[in-house]
Amino acid sequence: MRNYQKAHIMNRYDCEMRTAVIGAGNMGEALIAGLIAYGETPTNIAVCEKRADRAAELTSRYGILIAEIADSVRNADAVLLVVKPQDMATVLAEVGAAINPAAVVVSFAAGKKIDFISSNLGKPNSVIRVMPNTATMVGAGMAAMSLGNGVTQAQHEFVAGFLAKSGQVVEVSEELQDAVTATSGSGPAYFFAFVEAMVAGAKELGLSSEVATQLTVQTLVGAAKLLAESGKTATELRENVTSPNGTTAAALKSFSDGELSKLVAKSMKAAHDRSIELA
Fold first, then answer.
1. Burial, 131: exposed, middle or buried (Cβ in 10 Å; 0-12, 13-18, 19+)?
2. Which of 2, 16, 62, 170 has the least C-beta neighbours within 10 A?
3. pTM over cut 0.85
4. pLDDT in tens, 98-146
5. Which long-range contacts (CB under 8 A, 24 or more apart) does 54-60 make?
6. Which CATH class is domain 2-173?
7. Residue 82 to residues 9, 25, 128, 228: CA-CA distances in angstroms?
């Protein structure tokens, strides 16, 4: 596994890439912002979005172009597919009818394998599969990329480089992508669910919704920052804050009695299995 965060963030590739972004929801916009932060000229980025008001919003905000799929992929060096898994086959057929044969196709759809993308594209273009997460929208995302056959060094560095502008990037073998989906792809929702549960628990103890939310969110943000920057493991930090027979120990015992670890593992397995079903 390769990690592209910190010292190994890719340097700007010498020649700009013309990029087509198909699908302009929140993730599509985050990727557009990452491309521009990486140094791409906005007019080298074309967005394909069926909602005219959304397309107009993005071109006004970023100075990018609006284009139909065929027009955008014909001269693109990179085609980013940011569409729902159930729409992928239809989109690939349209892309394949006009795509530049030298372009790299980058899929951000959960569950869809490189072989699926290549076969439905119907062309021998190189393919990179990426599983991002929603924190990409605030520049703190986690993305895992897998390379298909024929990906050039320039294409590899380009994709790793612009993804690193929106968070951290690792490279994994494709057979691990379902595990990535269950860990970091779906992971933000696990965190949000835990926040909801903590806020509800705090309210039951008498705190107002506003104070309960502020206490919970900042506590978890601070804990995550401490974990990321302290150099200590989660186990070490947990042990450091847990005094014998103290309040934290009492809470953690309840977690243990409720088999929290087994519940989390079971939930992640469900996400993993669903990712396989989407293939």
1. buried
2. 2
3. yes
4. 999 999 999 999 899 999 999 999 999 999 999 999 999 999 999 999 9
5. 54/24, 55/24, 58/24, 58/29, 58/32
6. alpha beta
7. 23, 8, 13, 29
R_g of the chain computed on alpha carbons: 21
Give φ, ψ of 274 to 5 degrees.
-65, -35
| Domain residue spans of the chain | 2-173, 187-277
How far, CA to CA in Å, does 50 sit from each of 71, 98, 222, 251, 267? 14, 18, 40, 50, 35
Q: What percent of the chain has pLDDT over 70?
A: 95
What single letter denotes the amino acid at residue 3? N
Binning pLDDT at 50, 70 and 90, where does residue 7 land? Answer: very low
Distance CA 59, CA 73 (A): 18
Q: Do residues 4 and 160 make contact, with C-beta atoms less than 8 angstroms apart? A: yes
- CA distances to 114, 189, 209, 265 from 269, rounded to whole Å, are 22, 15, 33, 6
Show the tokens assigned to 210. Answer: 């506003």
Q: CA-CA distance, 135 to 154, in Å (whole number)?
A: 26
Name the residue among 21, 10, 5 with its Cα closest to residue 158: 10
Cα–Cα distances in Å, from 63 out to 40, 44, 79, 211?
A: 12, 10, 18, 40
Q: Residue written as tokens 């009492």?
A: 250
Supply φ then ψ for residue 140, to 5 degrees: -130, 35
What does DSSP assign to residue 50? Answer: S
